[in-house]
Every structure is written in structure tokens, then in C-alpha cells.
Write a structure and sequence with these properties.
The protein has 322 residues and is of the alpha/beta class. It contains 14 helices and seven strands.
């Protein structure tokens, strides 16, 4: 890297430093709050009170964008219903949040691990250790998406608190050029990321308690929106019955107990009937509920659900009309 020398010092200054500093100064998420300049001098409980008050403002910022969030969810669900995938792409905290949300979909909604994916700049090792320079490469994002075999049915969500991270912007630009649906989730208004995406979601939470520490309010806002995006998309895809996780994957004893409880809540059946239904359907909660409420056997339940694209209410309606 070449450098110039600051007029007031002998220390070389990297090229582009002044431009980057000027860019950061315009971002709400990087703003300095002089009223908190001596927060380190306050009692611990007072710091906690201030921080809690800051966090309490985040849901309101999300609420302001609910129409845009809902539109993005409906578009995502439409793509996934025809076989597309949901792919998150980000760097640092934003990337980690995307990977986290993706990793929780298989046990919660019984999705295949390939259906909801998280890309983080620098690869899996960046989940626990920063990879220098990875977030600065649009080309790396394009290569990561190409490595997944990106299609026009996929949805790509670029995540960046600042809205200027090249990796997130590059992912959205590349995906949009391929015909995929694109969402840009940021925490600054008029961001480059939102401008690049078909659905720009700008959740402006204001300056952070610690200047520029976007793992705080910005991270919380991103987590709330990602919760909505994945959860409501799965609801639209029939992964729930009411507010019950009927596609839960019973991979451990806790989840097996939860499976029994979900069948009980959905049907009101007794323990023996529930155990018999789960045994007849290889532990598939949704199928077990259909055998009880629809009065069909395990194979018939599987056929009805397949014909209903996995929507339990539709399968029950089909039983009741025959």
C-alpha cells in the first residue's frame, strides 16, 4: 500500500485514509456522542441503565419499516416456494448474524441445510476471528455466490450496519445481475447497500453507546429483522400450524419431548395416541397431527401433505372435503 505524509506529522498516512474518514463521519452508526464521553466514570448500574434505554429504542426503529419488511418477506417466500434458497451475506457482526439465523432453520423448521445459507466474508473461520481485508472485496462475494451455484430463484440478503461494506454490496449487485431477488439490510439512511438491492431495508437506530460499535443497537436491529425474515417466510411456506413449530426436527431428547407436546397442543390427544401417531409417521410432527385430526394412516398423511406443498391446513381441508 502506498502512502502520503500528513502535513502536520512525519508518520505516513495510508492512501485513501482521508476519504474513508470523511465517509465514516457521515454515518449515523459512526457518530460520536459527547454526552457519553465520560461514561466510563459512571457506576456500573448507571451504565447498564443507559445501555438498556438505548436498546429499548430498537424495536421502534424496526416498526417504522414493517411495510418494507413485509414486502421483502412475501417476495422471499414466493421464490422459496418454487425451490429457491435464502442466502445471507455479510462481514463481521453482520455476517455472523446471517450465519446464525441460517444455522437455526434446520432444527426449527426441518429445512435442508442447503435451503437457508449464511456467507461471511473470509469464510467459516471469520465466525470466530476477523479475516483482514475480506470485507473490502466485492469480487470475493461474487465468487462465494458462484460457489453456491446461484440461480434466479434464490434470494440474497446483503447485511451491513454501515450500508457501505463492499462484500455485502458486491453480493447484492452480483445476485441482482443474475436475476435473483435481493434485499439490503443496513442501519443508515440512503445507503449504497439499499440502493443496490431491490428491497432496501434501512433500520436507522442512531449513534451507538460506544462510538462505531455496531454489534450493539445495529446488531440488535439486524437480528430482529432476520428473525422476522426467516420466521415469517417459514410461516408462509407452511412450516407452522398456528404458532406451533410442526416441522421441528426431533434430533435430541428435548426436541422429542417438544414434538410430543406440539402434537398434544394441536390435537388434544392422549399420550398413547400421540406415541402411536409419531411411531406411524417416523416422528414427523406434522404428519402425526394429520393422522389424528384427519383420521388417516401414516402413508396417506405423507401423500396429502405432499399434494398440499407441506401446508397442514390445506391437507386437513382436503381430508374434510373427501
Amino acid at each position: 500500500m502506498t502512502s502520503t505524509t500528513d502535513a502536520n506529522a512525519d508518520t505516513p498516512v495510508p492512501d485513501g485514509y482521508g476519504e474513508l474518514r470523511a465517509q465514516l463521519a457521515t454515518l449515523t452508526t459512526e457518530a460520536f456522542r459527547p454526552e457519553l464521553a465520560e461514561i466510563d466514570q459512571l457506576p456500573t448500574q448507571e451504565i447498564a441503565r443507559i445501555m438498556n434505554g438505548e436498546d429499548a429504542t430498537v424495536p421502534a426503529a424496526v416498526a417504522e419499516k414493517l411495510p418494507q419488511i413485509a414486502a421483502a418477506i412475501d417476495a422471499t417466500a414466493e421464490r422459496m416456494a418454487r425451490g429457491g434458497r435464502l442466502i445471507y451475506a455479510g462481514a463481521g457482526t453482520a455476517g455472523r448474524l446471517g450465519v446464525l439465523d441460517a444455522s437455526e432453520c434446520p432444527p426449527t423448521f426441518n429445512t435442508d441445510p442447503s435451503e437457508v445459507l449464511g456467507l461471511i466474508a473470509g469464510g467459516p473461520s471469520a465466525m470466530v476471528k476477523a479475516v483482514e481485508g475480506a470485507e473490502d472485496s466485492k469480487e470475493l462475494a461474487a465468487a462465494d455466490l458462484d460457489g453456491l451455484g446461484l440461480t434466479a430463484d434464490d434470494t440474497v440478503v446483503g447485511i451491513s450496519a454501515s450500508g457501505r461494506t463492499p462484500y455485502a454490496i458486491g453480493a447484492v449487485e452480483h445476485a441482482r445481475a443474475k436475476g435473483a431477488l435481493t434485499l439490503g439490510l443496513s442501519c443508515n439512511a440512503d445507503s449504497a447497500l439499499a440502493a443496490a438491492a431491490e428491497h432496501g431495508l434501512e433500520i436507522v437506530v442512531g449513534a451507538e453507546l460506544l462510538t462505531g460499535s455496531t454489534r450493539l443497537k445495529a446488531g440488535t436491529a439486524q437480528k430482529l429483522v432476520l428473525n422476522m425474515l426467516s420466521t415469517i417466510t417459514m410461516i408462509r411456506l407452511g412450516k407452522t400450524y398456528g404458532n406451533l413449530m410442526v416441522d421441528v426436527r426431533a434430533s435430541n431428547e428435548k426436541l422429542r419431548a417438544r414434538s410430543r407436546r406440539i402434537v398434544s397442543l394441536a390435537t388434544g390427544a392422549g399420550d398413547q395416541e400421540i406415541e402411536a401417531a409419531l411411531a406411524a409417521t417416523d416422528g414427523e410432527v406434522k404428519n402425526a397431527i394429520l393422522t389424528i385430526l384427519g383420521g388417516v394412516d401414516g402413508p396417506a398423511a405423507a401423500t396429502l401433505l405432499a399434494e398440499s406443498d407441506g401446508h397442514l391446513r390445506a391437507a386437513l381441508a382436503a381430508v374434510r372435503t373427501t
